[in-house]
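yo, VSTM5 protein is done. seq:
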Amino acid sequence: LMRPLQGCRRRGVVVGTVTLCLAAGWALQTPGGVSLVVPQPNINATVAQNILLSAEYSCRGVATIEWKHVSSWGTTSIAEWRSGNYANISTVYKDRVTTFENGSIQLRNVGMRDAGYYFVTVTDEHGTNAYGTIIVNIYEIIYEDLHFVAVLFAFLAAVSAILICFMWLCNKSLHLFQKKTTHKLTASTTEEIELETIEC
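structure:
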């Protein structure tokens, strides 16, 4: 009696597994469903730079894309649009954001307040969501360092100019010294010739 029951249980497990696989395959083939890929989840930028918050989604129907920015200053809605339709960009970002059909946005002229987390949500017609996050770090250009480099460059240029002038003066002095030495030698040779002539 026990052996047939074990065989039935095994068949039941096999049938259940096959049914589950078929159901999963059927669910994947039904309309709807959305996927989202964020190729660059971490971005480093400097002040006044333009950055691309890249996202690529796929959806069988019409998708709604929404971007939000979360930082220590709070949460701000950036843009929301349906694929193929006009993008609704918030007034804070109106002149600084460009939206793209693949779900990406470009943020122009970033400042320190633009650092933080950027969340993108893609929702299909059936209410299925896909989420992505990008961390943006903004760095200031330290003008004190640039000032130091400029001062150092000016100092080195001045030292180079002084050395060039010093070498030119040394060369000139050497030339004058050689000229005087040559003149003295010529004069003494002339005197010797004159003395020899007088003696003769």
